[in-house]
Write a structure and sequence with these properties.
Layout: E1 2-6, E2 11-15, E3 28-30, E4 79-85, E5 88-94, E6 99-100, E7 109-112, E8 122-125, E9 130-133, E10 138-141, E11 154-160, E12 163-166, E13 174-183, E14 186-195, E15 198-205, E16 215-219, E17 222-227, E18 232-234, H1 283-300
Antiparallel strand pairs: 1-2, 2-3, 4-5, 5-6, 7-8, 8-9, 10-11, 11-12, 13-14, 14-15, 16-17, 17-18
């Protein structure tokens, strides 16, 4: 849709097919020739009719020639668009295509949801390259894959200085960190999750592919514990103070699952299972076998040497 200035009426008339000028106030834009702008009391309203599916329309186009041969000659502060209220710029597009707000302290930012200094909205600062949100705002997603203004079901928020929170009312939250990802059924990932009022931390694999990986606990590069598919291995000392080892009353547990596994008590050097001591057959053998039994107990550290 194009418009042409009519010097006889001081208005912009809509130009139709073949260059014909459309008549009527619905096809005109009020223009104040003397002041070089729209009349102060006029609303800038245009109602184009996009009625051809084969035509690519442009609602508003401003094509500025900034110097010959594409070399800009205008001042760096030149603007393609400057929207103001009461003489104060509210939003600008400069000649480089940068959209920014104007304030006394910072002059290169985008503000959505509130002007600079307001307590709402978010801002992208070009001078520092940071995206900033007001303290009472969140970054969130909805369940809708398209455009949606429905309630957020996943959100990140600021709890305090240096504290990032994932929260959504009383709904329990889950965090996933992926090792590999192909699709929703093929992956390897870690999971930190609240479920049934229990904090759970572990690894997961997809139902269609992926390996259930082990979970290691490290300090720096040193591993202290690793949890595999059927074992829990400690690589450093375990300290217990004013606590007990409590077992169940049905199955119990084993200390050592093979005779070649080494054990030591009271700081004795661990050894494999001691050999058997034969039964005594008379008074003399009782003393011999008792001494053999005491030797084995000393090897284990169960009695002092």
């Amino acid at each position: 849709m194009a418009y042409k200035f009519n010097p006889f009426t001081g208005k912009l008339d809509q130009v139709g097919a073949g260059g014909a000028t459309a008549a009527g106030s619905a096809n005109e834009i009020q223009y104040n020739d003397g002041a070089g702008g729209l009349a102060a009391s006029s609303d800038f309203t245009v109602d184009p009719d996009w009625n051809d599916a084969s035509t690519v329309f442009t609602g508003l186009k401003l094509n500025v020639t900034d110097g010959a041969g594409g070399s800009p000659v205008s001042a760096s502060g030149s603007n393609l668009l400057d929207l103001q209220s009461g003489g104060t710029s509210k939003i600008k597009f400069d000649k480089f295509g940068i959209n920014y707000g104007v304030a006394s302290a910072i002059t290169n930012y985008i503000a959505i949801g509130g002007a600079y200094g307001a307590t709402n909205g978010f801002r992208l600062y070009g001078d520092t390259g940071t995206l900033r949100f007001a303290s009472n705002h969140t970054v969130g997603w909805t369940a809708n894959a398209g455009e949606s203004f429905t309630t957020l079901d996943t959100a990140l928020a600021r709890d305090d200085a240096g504290i990032l929170a994932q929260r959504n009312g009383t709904d329990s939250q889950t965090y996933r960190l992926y090792n590999t990802y192909t699709d929703a059924s093929n992956y390897e990932r870690a999971r930190l999750q609240w479920s049934a009022n229990e904090l759970r931390f572990g690894t997961e694999a997809g139902t269609g592919g992926g390996t259930l990986r082990s979970l290691g606990i490290y300090q720096g590069a040193t591993r202290y514990q690793i949890i595999g598919s059927n074992y829990n291995q400690f690589d450093k000392d375990i300290y217990m103070s004013t606590a007990n080892i409590v077992t169940d009353t049905s199955t119990g547990f084993k200390i050592g699952t093979a005779t070649t596994q080494k054990l030591g008590f009271y700081n004795a050097t661990p050894v494999v299972q001691p050999t058997a001591v034969a039964d005594a057959t008379d008074a003399a053998s009782v003393i011999t076998q008792l001494n053999a039994l005491l030797d084995r107990m000393r090897d284990l550290g169960l009695i002092a040497t």
